[in-house]
Design brief:
Blueprint lengths: L1 H22 L7 H12 L2 H11 L3 H23 L4 H21 L9 H18 L30 H35 L55 E6 L5 E4 H6 L2 E9 L10 E10 H8 L7 E6 L4 E5 H5 L5 E6 L2 E2 L9 E3 L13 E7 L22 E6 L5 E2 L2 E10 L5 E8 L5 E2 L1 E2 L9 E9 L2 E11 L21 E7 L1
Parallel strand pairs: 1-10, 12-19
Antiparallel strand pairs: 1-2, 3-4, 4-7, 5-6, 5-10, 7-8, 7-9, 11-13, 13-17, 14-15, 14-18, 16-17, 18-19
Bound molecules: the ligand Nc1nc2c(c(=O)[nH]1)N[C@H]1C(S)=C(S)[C@@H](COP(=O)(O)O)O[C@H]1N2 and molybdenum atom (MO).
Length: 517
């Protein structure tokens, strides 16, 4: 029974701490998010790679669930110790709270208020432990009378009925659970209400001064099972280290351009929108994408010309890196020469015709065609520092990933799906290929290691977007192996050699096994 009370006391501590964080307007300082975020930043690269591979976009819920499980086990132990060693139990609780407080303080942008949630939680948890481990129902002889004894009552109360102890414990348990759930729930409601009001989804943005070329209708092949050419926001992959989506009110947002520049610049969101905006279709890809994987998406971005902004600031000789930072302390190293070579590098404010969704970087993010996201696509960006690769390293570079990472030529089979059963005869094989900023020149497919055959390419929307392809295969019954490879406009063909994503992107041919009946 005591372990249950340990868990309930911890739940109450957590609930009151989360409520405090919400009331303080610092949800990221709540114990779960603070410890979870610190864990993400401290965990070694192999563990992160494993998490992304094993859980994909569910890696964050899995981490939170793991934390809650660890906390439940620890607090059950604290609860078991509590009746005999109350001081030890309270010390253990204080230790957990200190950990949460330290984690909250270690986060970027943390201030002294961020220790409040852990402090309130520790106090709540201690009270809860004392409350449950007070002797359940003191006998009359040990009753401590508080206040004035009431003599109109019988001096000897009736002996407790059998089961009364149990009932008292249950009542206390229910009370703790109630406070835990109510405080935790109230915290969530407050935080989500605040977040919705900081959301800029309904801001009206100025039209582009330099609009994207209209998409030729033939960029999308009408093959069932093949995704659309333009990825809708809600199915666009999301990769970042943020346990909670940073909510940045656009009225408070600023961007600093500094470092090796002649004239440092500070811009507000209104300043950004006052500049001429460029609109482009650009395919974004994550370096963690395995061969054939899902971490690529194509959107129509609207934003400020990043190269023009840097030229205004006057980049000094010697700078070779743009070190961009986000509001949550993440950073990316972007090769300056790539941004200045004439490609459409953007400080984007909109995606697919609307302000950026919070999860994709509202109010502003970087987009640089041809570079993997981790070296170019900083979301919630607030700081651009012109520096040197020799002097400063970014978040992932410090964890073993390459400092420069152009996107490798890639192709994948989306139809048929792996291990699909198809009927013999004409089978459509289709998919996507990308080689951003070079362009896809050809896609070839082969069956069971036979000769490579050219697939038909959909219309191109330019070198910075992916390209759909399809071909027809005369399938005979049995098991078959389909493989695909693309050649980019520089004449480079995807190599057969399989290399893992770390340090600068996977290579190898996507292979799909199918059964023909
Ligand atoms: N602030 C911030 N920006 C970030 C990241 C991050 O972890 N934090 N991840 C980058 C990575 S690795 C990729 S692939 C892209 C993904 O952008 P998306 O989530 O909009 O698809 O964002 C980049 N921008
Ligand atoms: Mo990425």
């Amino acid at each position: 029974m005591s372990e249950v009370f340990g868990v309930l006391a911890a739940a109450l501590a957590l609930g009151t701490a989360e409520l405090t964080a919400a009331l303080a307007g610092r949800p990221e300082a709540g114990p779960l998010l603070a410890v979870g975020s610190a864990f993400i930043d401290l965990s070694p690269a192999w563990l992160k790679d494993f998490a992304v591979r094993a859980f994909g976009t569910a890696d964050k819920p899995v981490l939170l669930l793991g934390l809650v499980t660890v906390l439940a086990v620890a607090s059950a132990a604290v609860g078991t110790a509590a009746p005999r060693r109350p001081r030890l139990a309270i010390a253990a609780l204080a230790g957990l709270a200190a950990l949460a407080g330290a984690a909250a303080l270690s986060r970027p942008g943390a201030g002294p208020v961020d220790v409040l949630p852990a402090t309130v939680g520790a106090a709540g948890g201690t009270l809860a432990l004392l409350y449950t481990h007070r002797r359940p129902r003191p006998g009359p002889e040990s009753r401590i009378t508080l206040g004035v004894p009431r003599h109109d009552r019988p001096i000897q109360p009736p002996a407790p009925a059998p089961g009364a102890d149990r009932r008292a414990l249950l009542t206390r348990g229910a009370a703790l659970l109630g406070v835990a759930v109510l405080s935790g729930g109230a915290g969530r409601v407050i935080t989500s209400a605040r977040q919705t009001s900081a959301d800029g989804r309904f801001l009206a943005l100025p039209p582009p001064a330099d609009p994207a070329r209209p998409l030729p209708p033939e960029v999308g092949l009408n093959v069932p099972g093949l995704g659309p050419f333009t990825t809708p926001d809600n199915s666009f992959y999301r990769v970042d280290t943020a346990l909670i989506v940073p909510r940045v009110p656009h009225q408070e947002w600023t961007l600093r351009v500094h470092g090796l520049v002649d004239r440092p610049i500070e811009l507000t969101f209104a300043d950004l929108l006052a500049r001429p905006l460029t609109e482009r279709d650009i395919t974004l890809t994550c370096v963690s994408n395995e061969v054939g994987g899902p971490y690529a998406g194509n959107a129509r971005w609207l934003g400020v010309d990043l190269a023009a902004l840097l030229r205004e600031a006057g980049v000094q000789a010697g700078a070779d890196q743009i070190l961009s930072r986000s509001v949550d302390g993440w950073s990316a190293s972007t090769a300056l020469e790539s941004v200045l070579d004439g490609r459409d590098a953007l400080l984007a404010v909109a995606m697919n015709g609307r302000p950026l969704p919070p999860a994709h970087g509202f109010p502003a993010r970087m987009i640089v065609p041809g570079l993997y996201g981790y070296v170019s696509a900083t979301k919630w960006v607030t700081d651009l520092k012109l520096t040197r690769f020799a002097d400063e390293q970014a978040y992932w570079t410090r964890r073993g990933w390459a400092e420069r990472a152009p996107i490798k030529t890639a192709s994948r089979i989306e139809v048929p799906k792996p291990f699909a059963e198809v009927s013999a005869g004409s089978v459509t094989v289709a998919g996507t290929a990308w080689a951003q900023h070079r362009g896809v020149a050809a896609v070839e497919v082969r069956v069971d290691g036979g000769p490579w055959r050219q697939a038909d390419l959909a219309a191109s929307a330019g070198p910075d977007t992916w390209r759909q392809w399809r071909t027809t295969w005369q399938a005979s019954p049995g098991q078959h192996r389909l493989e695909v490879r693309a050649t980019d406009a520089t004449g480079h063909t995807q190599p057969a050699e399989r290399v893992p994503p770390i340090p600068d992107g996977a290579t190898g041919w996507h292979t799909v096994l199918v059964t023909v009946t």
